[in-house]
What does this fold into?
Amino acid sequence: MSQEDKFKKVIAHAKEYGFVFQSSEIYDGLSAVYDYGQNGVLLKNNIREYWWKSMVQMHENIVGLDAAIFMQPTTWKASGHVDAFNDPLIDNKDSKKRYRADVLIEDHVEKIRQKIEKEVKKAAKRFGDSFDAEMFKQTNPRVVANQEKIDAINKRFADAFEANDLEEVRNIIIDLGIACPVSGSKNWTEVRQFNLMFGTQMGSVAEGASDLYLRPETAQGIFVNFLNVQKTGRMKIPFGIAQTGKAFRNEIVARQFIFRMREFEQMEMQFFVRPGTEMEWYNTWKETRMKWHQSLGLGDEYYRFHDHEKLAHYANAAADIEFKFPFGFKELEGIHSRTDFDLKQHQEFSGKKLQYFDPEINENYVPYVVETSIGLDRMFLAMFSSALEDETLEDGSTRVVLRLPYVLAPVKAAILPLLKKDGLPEMAREIMKDLQFDFNVQYDEKDAIGKRYRRMDAIGTPLCITVDHQSLEDKTVTIRHRDSMEQQRVKVSELKSIVDGLVNMTNVLKSL
Ligand code: GAP
It folds into this structure.
């Protein structure tokens, strides 16, 4: 199946099984805005909970915050967003389609990178166990040439970006022979900057109303509260402030479903450190966050780091954790060393000191910040798209199964009476009532048992608990496991601890 077809399947499945709907669909929808359905909201909540617990609950020096979406507009002047939160846009004159110039160049680079990967894979097959991938990459002439091409493009783009030279950005696109994916033509307009913030107004019309922005990142709510939290929480550096919440960006090239949205949710943590220690913390957080992703058990091949060549106006180091989405490796999370840029800017624009007295070195300073920033919706897409599988079984039949990590699955167990009579529904409901104090469980008595199993496979339910006639006699039930489809007979009295052992978040948190 092509990447495109696989992705279409992901989107269709998300809708059919109540995970993600187009916003205001009955009015033909709103582009790049989505609603989460009955199963989607549970998956989203579970991802958020896992992030929150691992970041806040498990770190005694990280605390939470819930700042407002609206902020005093000077915030965005100070942060640089009014002047510099732009995307370079370019239009194709034939298709009339608009693109982000940097994305066109990145996609071109990605194609060259894929050529290298193909070459490495082919060689690995040929040479078997003795294959040394690093050595091959350094010595194979075709790979070396392609890597040089990539480095040259990246450097040229980084220089143009640094100098804000939009003409040069256009020249890169022309020189690389990049064509419009829709029309195939290379007939491009000039490159222009476009600010991504949504503006709105507070107060009554016209006079007296002040212009506001919907926040484009949650981070600034943390920066402006730095001293409030530090003082009231008696926090000592190094310490972190974490929050989850909505952010808004007027994305011009909004495609790829919930990968790039205009309204989305971020999970961010700003870690305040002593100046000069930021690179150490930057590396620590890179590692910690990669471990968090890997703990969900998908396999290391789904993740890779991408160290930034071009840095945002506030950063002295930055890396992405990229995920293998159905459309290729793309950014899932950013780890940024933001220096003291933000606090210093807010200090200057507000006229209020944002400093910390460090008793260990007897000095006042503006702390440096290392941030970890992940999109909740993007994490949802990562988990959902990688979990969806069309499986062919031994008997030749097929099933659609959503192999979500157990801790993230919306429904942990389904309670299914084999028949809708003979006291089986009553016993099943009793089991459900007992389990629902601790787990999100679902009762289902409609249709044949096989069909019910398939419905649960499709929404990723790890366990199906079936109540049959034997259950009435000896107080046992069968547990059918989603992934292996194996069944085991267990005592009802042991159910809670068996389910807990398999789906409890504590087990995964302990592995961090
Ligand atoms: N405070 C830093 C910051 O906002 P960013 O790289 O612009 O950095 C961080 O965004 C993360 O937010 C990204 O890695 C991505 O997961 C998510 N994100 C950014 N823009 C998004 C969008 N339009 N739709 C969905 N998620 C987005």
Notes: The mean pLDDT is 95.
